[in-house]
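[Meeting: bench + compute handoff]

Bench side (C.D.) handed over the final construct sequence. Compute side (W.E.) agreed to return the predicted structure before the next meeting so the bench team could plan truncations. Sequence as handed over:
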Amino acid sequence: MKDERGILFILSGPSGVGKGTVRKSLFEKDPALEYSISVTTREPREGERNGIDYFFKKREEVQKMIEADELIEYAEYVGNYYGTPKEYVEKTLDEGKDVFLEIEVQGAMKVRENFPEGVFIFLFPPSLEVLKNRIINRGTETEDLVLNRLKEAQKEIDMMDAYDYVVVNDEVEKAVARIQSIVVSEHCKRERVAKQYQKALGSERI
């Protein structure tokens, strides 16, 4: 049914759970999915392209977007804004494409407020011990930072009830397969399919 609107999927979870790894593997298996391109005020890095990696904007431009309520969510990190533009997401969904947003838990809660029709997937670690090891194995953080991240992760795990689905990331391949099942399941939901069939059958009823 080509008139079907796409679905916004929000993939979220605590830092270190493997969101980026799972999302990249998912996109390799399903190239039809669209990644939500963020706006940012930081300078492009070598090889990054506008409209592909990010929408690169001036700080004043993003501030105007915030004031005009043109971002589904936004945050400021190290003096730069990052956000999800409504117009891009809506346009892509209207084209019938599914959009995936990979985001931290706090950002996901903002998306929930502004885009409640989205499908929220919480990526869950097999255990806190596994999560701790993943953060430590990055080798980029001090012991204190690891401890702070784990405390924050516990708080974020407590927010799991705000999500529609929970996927345990024990193995990347299995996690990806579960997310693919969620995508299919959402497209088969009665309320989504019914709208399309009502349009298709409207002129053929006896």
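W.E. noted at the follow-up: DSSP finds eight helices and nine strands in the chain. C.D. will use this when planning the next construct.
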